[in-house]
Amino acid sequence: MNIEMGANWVEGVAHEGEARNDDVNPIWSIVNNELGLTTFCSNYDNIASNTYNEDGTGLYDEDFVKRTIDEANEVQKKGNKISERPRSDDISVMAMQRFFEHTPYGPTKPVDMVIDYYMNDYEFAEPPRVTSVQSTHPLPTFVKFGKNVYFVADQRGYESVVHYIAGQYLETDGLGAIVDPRLMLNKAVQEITYSQDCVTVKTEDGWLYEAEYVMVSVSLGVLQSNLITFSPPLPEWKTFSLYQFDMAVYTKIFLKFPKRFWPVGSGTEFFLYASSRRGYYPIWQHLEKEYPGCSILLVTITDDESRRIEQQSDEHTKAEAMEVLRKMFPDRDVPDATDIFVPCWWSDKFFRGSFSNWPIGVDSYEYDQIRKPVGRVHFTGEHTSEHYNGYVHGAYLAGKHSADILIDHAKREK
Fold this sequence. Notes:
Layout: E1 9-13, H1 26-34, E2 39-41, E3 51-53, H2 62-82, H3 93-99, H4 110-119, H5 121-124, H6 133-136, H7 140-145, E4 148-152, H8 160-166, E5 189-194, E6 199-203, E7 208-211, E8 214-216, H9 220-223, E9 229-231, H10 236-244, E10 246-248, E11 250-256, E12 270-274, E13 283-286, E14 296-302, H11 303-310, H12 314-328, E15 339-341, E16 355-357, H13 364-371, E17 377-379, H14 392-413
Parallel strand pairs: 3-12, 5-9, 8-17
Antiparallel strand pairs: 1-4, 2-4, 5-6, 6-7, 10-16, 11-14, 11-15, 12-13, 13-14
């Protein structure tokens, strides 16, 4: 059985009959209509009844957790009003919470913290103190396309979306596999040299590739690193805009067990661990619905906890996770996990994080600068999507937009 190392969900899908034809998430159209991938709608409605205490007593009182969630939701709705103000009035989500006298922080409020984490960090991969209110309240993806999220659990993999799109432009064989000689994999770009006439790309194996234009689609984290050298160096206005944005870290840790010890059935898919340490193994999901009989748990961590875990051994991480699970299920026989998989997006030089997050006070002008070409060098990626950064559909729509810009420049030169 295969599990997804990268993106799992199509986020922003409407209830049937809810969306207009022009408001369908383009990735959902490919996943559901063109490829027919196996998907499952994720249901978080019962998460209040699946919130566990770190003191080893098991579940919190459901009504108490529901009240906590309701209070947090009310503050989120009030935050939507701030988005109607001028961009210069932008503040952090934390500042907005304090303004409305909602402070879900500190070791004495573990339930408040994990609910706050679930409603903010779980979506944006960074805490409320750095996330912009005006860019996230309300969230454009859910406003435009719908509030449902679908987990892709197909053995063909989410990557089949990429192969499907590529197959419309590149040569394929009779089985649909890409065989176009223009597609060169396992080539690490080392330097991009550009002039008024052409662009030359040098790879780590010493090869040189010359073209009229180049589209750079590496992550924001890579652009903020020294992996690729630009010659001449990118202008200050470009680097200034790139460094204003955050490259967040979102880590999904998979644990395989010899048997299932957690509850299954309707309303049990997601559960929370309310630790006095914010973001400490907070959000869990069993995959019995997606992969029946798999005995796999998925726990999501982000930001500083992701970086911390990437610097320790998988055995150490497994031991920490097992300690948490035994506190959550004190009355159950919890066996040791037989396997663990920990992606290291922050440490990987080809990613340097998972996706971008829009910080406080940055307006559309900075986004225009991020995606603006530098001579014959063009840029694309989810970080260049003004409204859908951080999402698969944001990367897709940004790619189309950047391609239009490049085509327009090429036509004007002829």
